């Protein structure tokens, strides 16, 4: 058996993309040096469209001026995947894990993240699944959660974005992840679950699938994560 | 020299895409400093350098997908012994090729390459030190086709390659894209040898009777290298992933073919009146608006007016219902550098020729600079494609779903025609209407196209 593994959960509440990126960077550095245990950050971003390093600019269907007018920030990003949108009503998770302590397998990691979200959605009666060849979490051919990850020396950053009560009209500005498939949200699927409930379910499933024996909550804002412990 | 290999980032992973070199050849790198990035299934990974030294060679270019353990570059640990390592440029991207007759190889990527390949290095990867032990056991088994990547399967299908003839060098003896590339190069070399040609860099080999195993011979050869290269290294084809736009176009075209019962009817149309009017107003129009007056806005105006008489052409099908659209929104096919987009002129029936010309110029300009808004490419109810501007006399366009008809405009050409038993010179264009025969009967389609023709032939309204 492996030794006791710990994960810290931090709910950052509402945070700008650049701000959250800086926090991630800092934590990744600390994680690499072994100063902190694995982390799961939960955050909600203001309207922002981000483009992965290998993304295609043509999947952005509006120019930057139009985005500015619509109140949307544009941000290139070093995660995997193509273009995506973040905004209010979306629950974004940034796990910062040292995969050497779990599995040295990036594909297994992405599949596990999918499973975390699928099982969390199941807690709210939503039957979600995978779509062969299309990373992410899907409900009846609609994408409810997107995944994009960056790894450096087996330490992960970036992560997933689950549409909770996201206003889906903002996705019209992009071809999400380069796919011409529709998006959906928990709300659209008929769920009335609150944001903190969903975040707690994600944290719970996260701990289960990544086999954390111990987890602690550290809250940057008022929302509580105690339900998970 | 230390080999830099494509790492295995997980059990099930057999290949990775090298997305970015973080160091250039000749640059110094520290041990564990990020050296390049790879991408696998939504995960970007920085790969640290296995040694400290100078990045000597880059053997795998950005964007290439290679099997795990493939040597992607080499690092020279100390600066002193450089001269002894000539660049095996020939091996650049053909791991494990059955060694072709060693021709003098041209140095390509390596920064200095003192003397060209006195001793070609052994094929890359062949030794594959970090392969799982299973590799050797079934390297030439022929039941391995189950473990192929979709790309490999697709390539084998496309080029008609018998996979049992291909040696796999990937993890577990799997056949990778590079193995196929190498195999095809080798086959190409063999074809050349049979033809006995001295092999200048030209696609001359197609005349040689190709052995059955080398169907690529019938394909157009890949771009010929500028400098003479060893024949075996010239790739027979270039494989690149579709852009999102291309994938969407492909999907849409097939969807449309599957959905509609396409029939095309062609009406010869006398454009002389329009041509004359255009001639009259050309200069003034250009001066007044800053762009030229083309035939297209006249055709749009005529198509729109004819739609009023035959609204079924402006309809769509939903289940067993016919949706007659009250708005007439005309999609205009615009050719882009690498694709096609169909921006929409909304309420085209409310615009005159000048307004239509302005809309065409505006939409096509912004389409080419990718400045269209999402709702400007949606909601079309009928489309027009102007292949005549590329010199086509007539073509059979594909319907833009969920519409039921598309009008293609051929080039306007002066030809001799018989008018009142005399031969006259007239400006003539072919109008091709592709319609969905599920909804539109041939007679209606011809009545509609005839109406468009008659409006154009009897045009009297002045433009300016």
Structure description:
The complex is a heterodimer of chains A (229) and B (464). Chain A has 229 residues and is an alpha/beta fold. Helix content of chain A is 24%, strand content 31%. Chain A has an 8-stranded mixed sheet with strand order 7-8-9-10-6-2-1-11, sandwiched between helices. In chain A, strands 4-3-5 form a 3-stranded mixed sheet. Chain B is α+β, with helices and mostly antiparallel strands and 464 residues long. Chain B has helices spanning 134-137, 150-159, 177-195, 244-259, 272-289, 296-309, 353-368, 442-457, and strands at residues 2-5, 15-21, 28-29, 34-40, 43-48, 53-58, 65-67, 71-76, 262-270, 315-318, 321-324, 330-332, 334-336, 339-341, 344-345, 382-385, 405-409, 413-419, 422-436. In chain B, strands 9, 12, 15, 16, 17, 18 and 19 form a 7-stranded mixed sheet that branches. Mean pLDDT of chain B is 77; it is low at 79-146 and 189-230. The A-B interface holds A 52-54, 56, 58-59, 61-63, 66, 78-82, 103-110, 135, 147-153, 172-173, 175, 177-178, 180 and B 9-13, 19-20, 32, 34, 37, 39-46, 48, 243-245, 248, 251, 370-374.
Which properties best describe this structure?
heterodimer, A: alpha/beta, BirA Bifunctional Protein, domain 2, three-stranded mixed sheet, disordered C terminus, B: about 475 residues, alpha+beta, Chloramphenicol Acetyltransferase, four-stranded antiparallel sheet, 8 helices
């Amino acid at each position: 058996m492996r030794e006791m593994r710990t994960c810290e959960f931090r709910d950052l509440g509402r945070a700008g993309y650049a701000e959250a990126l800086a926090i991630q960077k800092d934590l990744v550095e600390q994680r690499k040096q072994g100063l902190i245990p694995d982390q799961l950050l939960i955050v909600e971003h203001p309207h922002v469209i981000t483009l992965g390093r290998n993304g295609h600019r043509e999947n952005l269907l509006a120019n930057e001026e139009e985005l500015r007018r619509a109140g949307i920030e544009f941000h290139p990003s070093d995660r995997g995947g193509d273009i995506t949108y973040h905004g209010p009503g979306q629950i974004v998770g940034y796990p910062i894990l040292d995969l050497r302590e779990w599995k040295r397998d990036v594909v297994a990691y992405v599949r596990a993240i999918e499973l975390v979200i699928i099982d969390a959605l199941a807690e709210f009666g939503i039957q979600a699944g995978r779509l062969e060849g299309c990373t992410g979490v899907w409900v009846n051919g609609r994408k409810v959660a997107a995944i994009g990850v960056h790894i450096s020396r087996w330490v992960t950053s970036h992560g997933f974005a689950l549409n909770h009560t996201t206003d889906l009209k903002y996705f019209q500005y992009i071809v999400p992840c380069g796919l011409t498939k529709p998006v959906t949200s928990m709300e659209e699927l008929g769920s009335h679950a609150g944001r903190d409930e969903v975040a707690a379910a994600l944290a719970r499933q996260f701990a289960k699938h990544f086999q954390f024996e111990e987890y602690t909550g550290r809250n940057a804002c008022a929302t509580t994560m105690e339900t998970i412990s | 020299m230390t080999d830099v290999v494509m790492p295995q980032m997980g059990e099930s992973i057999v290949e990775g895409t090298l997305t970015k070199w973080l160091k250039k050849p000749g640059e110094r790198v520290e041990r564990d400093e990020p050296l390049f990035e790879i991408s696998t299934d939504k995960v970007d990974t920085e790969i640290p350098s296995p040694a400290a030294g100078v990045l000597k060679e880059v053997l795998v270019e950005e964007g290439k997908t290679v099997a795990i353990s493939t040597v992607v570059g080499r690092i020279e640990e100390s600066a002193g012994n450089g001269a002894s390592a000539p660049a095996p440029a020939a091996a650049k991207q053909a791991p494990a090729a059955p060694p072709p007759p060693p021709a003098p190889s041209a140095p390509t990527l390596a920064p200095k390459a003192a003397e060209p390949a006195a001793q070609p290095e052994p094929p890359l990867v062949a030794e594959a030190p970090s392969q799982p032990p299973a590799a050797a056991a079934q390297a030439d088994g022929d039941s391995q086709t189950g473990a192929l990547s979709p790309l490999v399967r697709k390539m084998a299908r496309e080029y008609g390659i018998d996979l049992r003839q291909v040696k796999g060098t990937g993890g577990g003896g799997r056949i990778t894209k590079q193995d196929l590339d190498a195999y095809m190069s080798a086959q190409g070399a063999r074809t050349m040898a049979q033809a006995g040609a001295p092999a200048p860099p030209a696609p001359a080999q197609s005349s040689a009777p190709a052995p059955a195993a080398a169907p690529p011979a019938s394909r157009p050869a890949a771009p010929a290298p500028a400098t003479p290269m060893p024949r075996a290294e010239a790739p027979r084809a270039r494989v690149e992933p579709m852009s999102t736009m291309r994938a969407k176009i492909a999907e849409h075209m097939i969807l449309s073919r599957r959905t509609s019962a396409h029939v095309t009817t062609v009406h010869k149309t006398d454009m002389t009146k329009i041509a004359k009017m255009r001639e009259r107003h050309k200069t003034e129009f250009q001066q007044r608006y800053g762009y030229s007056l083309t035939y297209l806005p006249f055709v749009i105006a005529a198509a729109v007016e004819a739609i009023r008489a035959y609204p079924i052409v402006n309809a769509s099908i939903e289940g067993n219902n016919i949706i007659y659209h009250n708005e007439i929104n005309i999609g205009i096919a615009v050719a882009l550098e690498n694709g096609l987009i169909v921006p929409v002129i909304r309420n085209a029936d409310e615009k005159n020729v000048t307004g239509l010309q302005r809309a065409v110029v505006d939409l096509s300009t912004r389409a080419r600079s990718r400045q269209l808004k999402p709702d400007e490419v949606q909601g079309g109810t009928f489309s027009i494609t102007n292949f005549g501007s590329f010199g086509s006399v007539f073509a059979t366009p594909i319907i833009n779903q969920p519409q039921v008809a598309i009008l293609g405009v051929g080039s306007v050409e002066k030809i001799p025609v018989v008018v009142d038993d005399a031969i006259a010179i007239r400006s003539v264009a072919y109008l091709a209407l592709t319609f969905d025969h599920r909804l539109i009967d041939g007679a209606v389609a011809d009545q509609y196209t005839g109406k468009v023709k008659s409006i154009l032939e009897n045009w009297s309204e002045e433009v300016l």
